[in-house]
UniProtKB/TrEMBL annotation:
The lineage of its organism: Bacteria, Pseudomonadati, Pseudomonadota, Alphaproteobacteria, Sphingomonadales. The keyword Transferase does not apply. The chain crosses the membrane at residues 17-34, 46-69, 135-156, 168-187, 220-244, 256-274, 308-325, 345-363, 369-391. Residues 15-402 form the Major facilitator superfamily (MFS) profile domain. This is MFS transporter.
Length: 403
């Protein structure tokens, strides 16, 4: 039996996949709204731009929650924090289930976003328990769990809403979160303390230290901006697609939106390979290449947008490379000193979700203003920004690979 006085050095493959599953269940809660956004808007009698506030506030609240809560991972046990945040999500889902007005539903979704911290504690938790040469691979495994959760959320929500009341989706989500909250104490290993509490920085110093850390590690700051563009593309396209496909011009049901979302399954197989590839050639070089491929896919959204079958082409392209861009971004912070990884990841994710929240609202507003052409133009503008910053980062990293 291993010496219990020594911290665990490595996660088993079973533990990696279990953590990936937990992350998928938790993160799925933010994505049930995507295929059913038109149904929820109709039920509450609100416009496309107004219903866009639900995912927008959810993402912005998540950014705020990450900023205020995620740095605690460098002070307190990731296990304890994950349990508390999961309980907060469970309560907020109960509010959404019982909501009898748009405002109450919006409040529940916003609180839900604030507590969706678990999936962003898990990479740091895992990074301290794997060898450096497997960081990209393990990060990719956890990312696959997130992708799978999003896939199930969007596909399942569309099908359920087509044949039952959309509220059933959130009842199921609440039940899953109750089970997850109960299971987490048995899944995650408690951190063995290496210093007395007095030796640790207090909460305000932890949060305040985020800004100097980002100044010291500008590559993490820029990676966060890049991921804000990347995730913004994802959200604006899928919210626009949900409105576009269920519009009178296209005439499809919300189940079709869910079925189209199922093409994200390609990422489950591609992302681990992309993570290993990034380990070999470097995250900056890999990200630039993936960004260029994604831009090509985004450029096809508008010309192919009136045919469901042809839309599968850009959807598959984007779902294949988008998560890989995120993996390369996370690698820039998870490869740094263990004692600052959680805070650097905090900065990365805050930037990501601030951009995502903005894109969620602008994406639905663009559709209300100019239909599918507006949604496609918005996505292409974000993609151009992503490519430009990725090129800048790849160029900045080049001298480090010379000699």
């Amino acid at each position: 039996m291993a010496n219990t006085n020594q911290p665990s050095s490595y996660l088993s493959r079973k533990a990696e996949f279990t953590l990936a599953t937990v992350g998928g269940i938790i993160v799925a809660n933010a994505y049930y709204i995507h295929p059913i956004i038109s149904e929820v808007a109709d039920d509450f009698s609100v416009s496309a731009s107004t219903i866009g506030l639900v995912p927008a506030f959810n993402q912005i609240a998540l950014a705020l929650g990450i900023f205020l809560l995620l740095p605690l991972g460098d002070r307190y046990s990731n296990r304890r924090l994950s349990i508390l945040f999961a309980a907060g999500q469970t309560i907020s889902l109960g509010i959404m289930v019982l909501a009898n007005s748009f405002i109450v539903f919006l409040v529940g979704s916003t609180i839900l976003g604030f507590f969706t911290i678990g999936p962003y504690l898990l990479p740091t938790y895992a990074s301290k328990r794997v060898s450096p040469d497997r960081l990209g691979s393990v990060t990719a495994t956890l990312t696959v769990g997130t992708i799978f959760g999003i896939l199930i959320a969007r596909t399942g929500a569309g099908v359920i809403a087509q044949y039952f009341e959309w509220q059933l989706i959130y009842i199921i989500a609440a039940c899953l979160m109750i089970g997850t909250t109960i299971s987490l104490p048995f899944i995650m290993e408690g951190r063995r303390e290496t210093s007395v509490p007095e030796d640790r920085p207090n909460y305000f110093r932890l949060v305040g230290s985020l800004f100097p850390l980002l100044r010291q590690h500008p590559q993490v700051f820029v990676s966060g901006i890049i991921q804000a563009f990347n995730f913004g593309i994802f959200l604006s396209v899928w919210l626009g697609l949900a409105l576009h496909l269920t519009s009178p011009a296209m005439g499809y049901g919300v189940d079709i939106v869910g079925y189209l979302a199922a093409f994200a399954v390609v990422a489950i197989f591609a992302t681990p390979r992309l993570g290993k590839w990034a380990d070999k050639i470097g995250p900056e070089k890999a990200r630039l290449r993936l960004a260029l491929v994604q831009m090509a896919g985004v450029a096809l959204l508008y010309p192919l947008g009136q045919n469901l079958w042809l839309l599968m082409i850009p959807v598959v392209v984007m779902n294949t490379v988008g998560p890989g861009i995120d993996v390369t971004g996370r690698m820039t912070s998870l490869s740094l000193a263990p004692e600052i990884r959680t805070r650097l990841m905090t900065g990365y994710i805050v930037l990501m979700f601030v951009g995502a929240g903005f894109a969620s609202w602008v994406g639905t507003a663009s559709y209300e203003w100019a239909g599918w052409a507006g949604s496609s133009a918005m996505a292409f503008a974000l993609s151009a920004g992503l490519v430009g910053l990725s090129w800048h980062q790849a160029r900045a990293a080049l001298p480090h690979s010379v000699n």
